[in-house]
Amino acid sequence: MTAVGVRMLGMRRSFGAVHALDGLDLVIEPGEFIALLGPSGCGKTTALRVLAGFETADAGTVWVGDKDITGTPPNKRDMGMVFQAFSLFPNLTAADNVAFGLRVRGVDSAARRKRAADLLELVGLGHVGKRYPHQLSGGQQQRVALARALAIEPRVLLLDEPLSALDAQVRVQLRDEIRRIQQRLGITTLFVTHDQGEALSVADRVGVMRAGRLEQLADPDTLYHRPATPFVGEFVGTMNRLPGVLGSDGTVRVLGADRPVAEGSDAVPGEVAVLVRPEAMTLSASETGSALVVVRTFHGALTRLSVRLGDGDEALVDLPSPAAAGIMPGDTVTVGVGEGPVLVAATDATRIPA
Ligand code: ATP
């Protein structure tokens, strides 16, 4: 089957005074895996439910390929879904759960059995077809749920936090498995998650939502290294907030140096917050330095140092571990901001909760 693209254009959905979707535009290319990420309440789940047809938008259109499906009921949308909660039918075996949608579609029993067995094999559960959900682990149940979603050969796969109820190790395994299967089938996929590591590691592109709209939709590398706005920069990965003074010439003074201001910055000249990733900081041991190392944590290739700056603010500095070898808590150091443009935000810009 050839993959289809999905378009959601101008989507609006309010619940009373809350604008869950506030003019959302989202275009997913055929066969693409998109993850939607964003703080709690930004509208991720509502976007997915509107796409599935479970929620009716107040305005906007939904397209699959060149077909407008805005008014199409959920069961006619040709979409497979996996939810967060274990949603298998408890009184059906794993195989019957997988075959359920085929039965509803009138596929004969021999073909159903064959397809269920093939799909259980695909998700690595060839041996559990006869078991009931309560005889399966959480990870196995989600694999069955994935097989069930794929059984009807949907054109679009929708995943609503499918991993969040699983423990860490199973979560990573199943995440990678979902990606492998998605690539093998080439199925257009939307994955909603609040876990940025999850989103960045599996998706072709990640959409960061804020207040019912997409703030940026980009591949993980661009999102991390060239965030379109301070909000995206602070939401994805870790950013230091350093005090700076923005001039009217497109440079900002921070930690004693002038740096060019990155695109997407949204502050006016004067006192600003300069956003810098820990690995973009510089640090050198110096008895006359004005910063103090307070904590040191080892992370394999990198070592993270928490330093207290002269003005009392704290900053995180990630150094390649060999470079951090002799630097210990209590040492006096000089810290700076590496070369290259820096993102600048108004000091009173809303901070994102950790
Ligand atoms: P989370 O990560 O917490 O699941 P989310 O980004 O998925 O959040 P949504 O579930 O889409 O956010 O909700 C967006 C906003 O709309 C929230 O303020 C939420 O309280 C509100 N909302 C969603 N569904 C309903 C509903 N059925 N009735 C009333 N308000 C709703």
TrEMBL record:
* UniProt-listed PROSITE patterns: ABC_TRANSPORTER_1, ABC_TRANSPORTER_2
Matching SUPFAM superfamilies: MOP-like, P-loop containing nucleoside triphosphate hydrolases
Coiled-coil ranges (or none): none
Residues in ABC transporter domain copies:
6-236
Q: Name one GO molecular function term.
A: ATP binding
Superkingdom as given in the UniProt entry: Bacteria
**What UniProt keywords are attached to this protein's entry?**
ATP-binding, Nucleotide-binding, Transport
The record's listing under InterPro entries reads: AAA+_ATPase, ABC_SmlMolc_Importer, ABC_transporter-like_ATP-bd, ABC_transporter-like_CS, Mo/tungstate-bd_C_term_dom, P-loop_NTPase, Transp-assoc_OB_typ2
> Is Heme a UniProt keyword of this protein?
no
| Name of the protein this chain belongs to | ABC transporter ATP-binding protein
Originating organism: Dactylosporangium darangshiense
